[in-house]
Amino acid sequence: MRENEKAARLKRMMDMKESGLTLEAIGKEFGITKQAVSSQLKKGIDIHKSRRCLYCGKPFVPRSTIREWCSPDHKRKWQTRERRQLRFFSNIDFNPDENGCLNWIGYKHPNGYGGMNGGYAHRLAWRIFRGEIPQGLCVLHHCDNPSCVNPAHLWLGTKGDNARDRNGKGRGKAYGGVGENCPQAKLCKKDVIRIKQMLKSGISRSSIGKSYGVGYGTIYNISVGKSWSHIKEGDGSGKE
Ligand SMILES: [Zn+2]
Ligand SMILES: [Zn+2]
């Protein structure tokens, strides 16, 4: 307890120094001289420098009970994150398939998307490899493979595209709130044939995307043969 108090005091002093207060002002606050503040801060900086929190990376004054994290909260968060990442990586087949997809071999939602901790694996992949998902954006697949968690195959699209697609086609209603998990817009073979015809006739990718409620990337991939390359625009004659 005594040690914790000392550490907390030191931490407060360092915070005050960092926020631009003079040694005199800090001394006044603690009822000590500015020389005393200076020597305590010097001592503090030595400890301060030696430790960085494993979770937030910020220097901190170690306490007797927690030595690797700046606070019990960051200890818990770090452990949760570690466990989650371990589980995430153990659920991936790291042998890429013929499209370069890294497939999720863990639990799959009924719509084919990998799932973990009640969320979507591809969204988790984005957060682990790329960072936070900006509010309002969805993680979509270039490769049209819902179980793929290869970060290179993922891109951020807007919620609007997904919502339009869901409302227009009645897909994905069973999964999560609107826009929350953003099941990827899925086109059927018929759609793709029609899209290829539209592309051939010179209609812009973005307006085709809009009319099908999918992102530009999806149409782009079809147009350059990155996805649905096995479908020809003349395939529409009956057989599905
Ligand atoms: Zn921390
Ligand atoms: Zn993929």
What does this structure look like?
The protein is mainly alpha-helical and 240 residues long. It is 45% helix and 6% strand. It has nine helices and four strands. The protein has helices at residues 2-18, 23-30, 34-50, 72-90, 121-129, 159-169, 189-200, 205-212, 216-223, and strands at residues 115-116, 119-120, 137-141, 154-158. Strand 1 (115-116) and strand 2 (119-120) form a beta hairpin. The longest helix has 19 residues, at 72-90. Mean pLDDT is 79; it is low at 165-185 and 236-240.
In short:
By secondary structure, the protein is mostly helical.
Largest sheet: 2 strands, antiparallel
Averaged pLDDT, please?
79
CATH architecture descriptor name of the largest domain: Alpha-Beta Complex
What distance lies between the first and last C-alpha atoms, to the nearest angstrom? 73 Å
Per the principal axes of the C-alpha atoms, what is the gross shape?
Answer: elongated
Derived structural class: mainly alpha
Radius of gyration: 27 Å
**Low-confidence sequence ranges:** 165-185, 236-240
Question: Topology, please?
Answer:
Layout: H1 2-18, H2 23-30, H3 34-50, H4 72-90, E1 115-116, E2 119-120, H5 121-129, E3 137-141, E4 154-158, H6 159-169, H7 189-200, H8 205-212, H9 216-223
Antiparallel strand pairs: 1-2, 3-4
Helix pairs in contact: 1-3, 2-3, 8-9
The structure holds zinc ion (ZN) (2 copies).
One zinc ion binds at residues 99, 101, 143, 145, 148, 150, 153.
Features:
single chain; mainly alpha; Homing Intron 3 (I-Ppo) Encoded Endonuclease, Chain A; 3 domains; two-stranded antiparallel ribbon; two-stranded antiparallel sheet; 9 helices; about 45% helix; about 5% strand; elongated; disordered C terminus; binds zinc ion
